[in-house]
Amino acid sequence: MLSNGLLSLQDRLQHAFKDAALLQRAVTHRSFSADHNERLEFLGDSVLGLAVSTMLFRRLQDLPEGDLSRMRANLVKQDSLHRIATRLKISEVLRLGEGESKSGGKLRPSILADAVEALIGAVYLDAGFETAQAMVHRFFEGVDLSPEKQAAAKDAKTALQEWLQGRKMKLPQYRVVGTAGAAHKQTFEVVCEIPDMGLTEHGTGGSRRAAEQAAATRLLAQLKAQHA
Fold first, then answer.
1. 138 φ/ψ sector (left φ>0, alpha ψ -120 to 50, else beta)
2. 141-154, pLDDT tens digit by residue?
3. CA-based torsion, 126, 29, 91, 50: positive or negative
4. Which of 25, 54, 80, 205 has the fewest CB atoms within 10 Å, i.e. is most exposed?
5. How far apart are CA 119 and CA 8, in angstroms?
6. Global pTM?
7. Which of 114, 117, 126, 189 is catalytic?
8. Is residue 141 flagged as an active site residue?
9. pLDDT (average), residues 47-65
10. Measured at the alpha carbon of residue 33, what is the angle toward residues 27 and 37, in degrees to the nearest 5?
């Protein structure tokens, strides 16, 4: 029997599960139970990628492969999935262990983004690809898919890479130079370097990727200031 919270989540997903255990597992973090959502997340990641690829292929018929790939990466990244999780109010039904819950796990973007992928995987197993794909497409209904809008939303690492490639320069190098905090709540410090120019910037974040993005953002701002 599903709780009222999970019944409400079904309504927001616009999918009534035949196998309610799949829905419950999709919102269960590994800190709560051995029957957690990581395998569903693995499956949902692939379904999400194919569903978004199909959507872009159909809606942007004149766009070349490279641009389609960049747009897909922007749509399926953690920030985008976190926004979807917030709209779906997934934090209200997440099942977390006591320690993870006390440390703010219900609001952690990585955990919420993973739950979105797990829900996609659960719907795929419950009703097949077409149903899961339709749900993914609903997630992105209000997203402006114009190339101009997506270019503006480009992540910092991609923007930095393209800035350097456009000037026939070597790509930046990233190094983790420090970590702090408990294993479940680490903070990473990363250095982003452009050796040819002697430029270096640091960035910190709750994941290695987030720290790399922060460092890339600072280095890109430095480059733009120098070449304004």
1. alpha
2. 877 777 655 554 56
3. negative
4. 54
5. 14
6. 0.69
7. 117
8. no
9. 91
10. 35
